[in-house]
Design a protein that fits this description.
This protein has 212 residues and is mainly alpha-helical. It is built from nine helices and no strands. The relative contact order is 0.08.
Length: 212
Amino acid sequence: MAGRADELARIGESARAQLHAVHQAREEALARCRDTIRACGLAIRAVHRLEPALSEERRGEAGTALRRAQEVLSPFPVLAAAGFLHDAEKEYAEACLTDALVSGTPLPGAGQLEVGLAAWLNGLAEAGSELRRHLLDRLRAGETSRAETLLEAMEDVYDVLVTVEYPDAITGGLRRTTDALRAVVERSRADVTTTVLQTKLQRAIEAAGPLG
């Protein structure tokens, strides 16, 4: 039985070594994914604060962290599909797409950003929702034309995403994210319409001059 014991000892040692490698990869990838998400949040905030250079810098940090997470997880497909990498890729896509939608530059595709297609689609949906904050800021600043342009971009995003009718297992829950975007678009449309009508009324009153 000594031979069997030695055999099992070797198998156990190999198993522990493999699991240790998996554990180390998971821990580092989780940390890098957290770094990605944190930097993306700061990048989006910089977009809303009209700080494009800072937003670009934060997106660069996010991209570096995400690439490291992807690299660490590449030998372990099961870990890569666990969900936290998808979330980080989605946040990265959202940050990059929000910047593009606000600035009016071409949208970077999933291949260009090196993220999964499901992550990119969900990032696009969340970027569309994120435009609401920028739209409201523009309304408060009296920039109604700019707000209307942002609303049109939100509607365009929704119109495309609503046509992606595949199971959630394939799209990463895109249907739910798209439904959330629809509600945001409807509220934003109401806000823009109200503000535009008020602006027109105010201009008409001013043009009419004082009564009497």
